[in-house]
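User: quick one, sequence for these tokens?
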């Protein structure tokens, strides 16, 4: 197998990987699971078999069995959770807001300010540090390494729902749904101003900014970045700000934050995308004082992952979860409503 016949593409969130492998012209018959374990780095045969069972592996566009015999020029595609790459994770007794749990997964309501997984500058106090303390034998973690149970993530200063896998099969099954964009994800955001339309779709590629790698830019012409689609609907228009609902077709880094800035409505108090300044209304007097007080109530951007829906890995039933806005977020909305109503 030549390197030219193996293509690897990582998702923007860097949590699972896609492969496309074309079998050589002279390929002899060999079981699919064995073939893949020989050609996919850091993937055990068990992990490959889980992927096949979850239909995350396809041959010539069709799901198949592990016993399938690979033939010359077969095109094999697969999407698997990324192998562990991080250093040792120290378990920490951090309380978790678990709103649902069964034998194969759990749903966590992450607070604003909590980093999801350890990285440069945030080696402790993360959701993963808490998970490895409270749960044993989470998938992709060996001796405390990797990102145990993590299927997706949300930004540090975004609150809301995350699904955590407790088995290898659950992780592969859920990762495939994220890869296929069949997960239902609804966010609430408070944005500056009111969009011209009460509902709409933002379609613009997202990629790292050449000026600052921590920031994502929009490339409407598709020349750079990755395909990204956000649907939004105004829930409450309050003249200076609006409470909106966003549904994601794709899950790119900072997708909602970058898309809303792109259409001229940054998220309230988003310091990365310009929402921490007064962008509507007269920036002075009692109004300025009120807005600054509202900024102080929220440690980050006013963005909350409100609902999450997916097919359960073992029951194959649709699961739907919802959570209320955090108290400080709700307080800010109420204060804006009161201010506008009293004008």
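Assistant:
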């Amino acid at each position: 197998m030549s390197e030219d016949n193996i293509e690897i593409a990582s998702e923007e969130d860097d949590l699972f990987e896609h492969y496309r492998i074309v079998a050589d012209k002279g390929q002899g018959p060999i079981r699919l699971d064995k073939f893949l374990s020989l050609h996919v780095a850091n993937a055990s045969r068990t992990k490959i078999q889980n992927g096949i069972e979850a239909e995350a592996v396809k041959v010539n566009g069709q799901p198949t069995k592990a016993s399938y015999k690979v033939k010359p020029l077969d095109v094999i595609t697969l999407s698997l959770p990324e192998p562990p790459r991080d250093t040792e994770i120290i378990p920490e007794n951090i309380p978790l807001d678990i709103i649902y749990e069964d034998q194969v997964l759990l749903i966590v309501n992450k607070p604003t300010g909590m980093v999801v997984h350890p990285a440069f500058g945030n080696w402790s106090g993360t959701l993963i540090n808490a998970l490895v303390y409270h749960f044993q034998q989470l998938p992709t973690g060996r001796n405390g390494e990797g990102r145990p149970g993590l299927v997706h993530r949300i930004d540090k200063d975004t609150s809301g729902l995350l699904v955590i896998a407790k088995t290898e099969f659950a992780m592969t099954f859920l990762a495939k749904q994220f890869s296929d964009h069949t997960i239902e994800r609804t966010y609430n955001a408070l944005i500056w101003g009111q969009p011209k339309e009460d509902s709409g779709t933002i379609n613009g590629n997202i990629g790292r900014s050449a000026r600052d790698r921590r920031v994502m830019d929009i490339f409407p012409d598709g020349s750079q970045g990755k395909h990204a689609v956000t649907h939004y609907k105004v829930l409450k228009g309050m003249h200076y700000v609006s409470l909106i609902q966003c549904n994601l077709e794709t899950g790119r880094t900072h997708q909602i934050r970058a898309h809303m800035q792109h259409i001229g409505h940054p998220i309230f108090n988003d310091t990365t995308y310009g929402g921490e300044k007064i962008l509507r209304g007269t920036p002075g007097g009692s109004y300025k004082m009120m807005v600054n007080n509202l900024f102080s109530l929220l440690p980050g951007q006013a963005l909350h992952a409100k609902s999450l829906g997916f097919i359960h890995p073992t029951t194959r039933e649709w699961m739907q979860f919802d959570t209320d806005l955090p108290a400080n977020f709700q307080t800010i909305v109420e204060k804006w409503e009161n201010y506008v109503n009293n004008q």
